[in-house]
Amino acid sequence: MVDAAEAAFPAEACGLIIGRGKGQLIRVTRVVPAENLLAETPDRFELDPATRIAVEKDLRDSGTKDRIIGHYHSHTDGTAEPSATDRAMAFEPEMAWLIVGVLDGQAIQTLGHRMDEKRGNFRPVPLRTPKAK
To answer: pLDDT tens across 33-76, in order?
Structure first.
């Protein structure tokens, strides 16, 4: 995600997060980059729906327990907090939103969020990375 965010700068990067688990305990198994259909528009992203359809078909056909657990995108102002546009576009509250803050082409922060439907705002989701073996 970080590599994609830095490579897309000054546009926003976006993609899907695949994994398994429930509630707060989910494990990411892979990340699928997607074309940003709004790459020419500053500070906006729209994930190519063809990518999502292909991933959903692949997951269904594979018989795996993996599923789409979230989306990622980057912010080109260095912040990794959800914007007002992010809040307005959060149609799937069960999905995690990971945001990579990029400043001058360098990722400086990555934060996880999930929409709290009752409050109409995002709440933080803790991220843990596995220890290197």
So the answer is: 999 999 999 889 999 999 999 999 999 999 899 999 999 999 99
Return d(Cα 24, Cα 127) in angstroms, integer: 10
Q: How far is CA 11 from CA 1, 6, 60, 74, 111, in A?
A: 14, 9, 31, 8, 19
The answer to whether residue 27 sits within a structural domain is yes
What is the number of structural domains in the chain? Answer: 1
Q: Return the number of other C-beta atoms located less than 10 Å from residue 39's C-beta.
A: 16
The verdict on residue 131 lying in a domain is: no
Give the 3-state secondary structure of residue 51: helix
Asked whether 55 and 91 are in contact (CB, 8 A), the reply is no
What's the pTM? 0.91
Q: Are 80 and 101 in contact (CB under 8 A)?
A: yes
Question: Quick check: 126 pLDDT over 90?
Answer: no
Question: Do residues 55 and 68 make contact, with C-beta atoms less than 8 angstroms apart?
Answer: yes
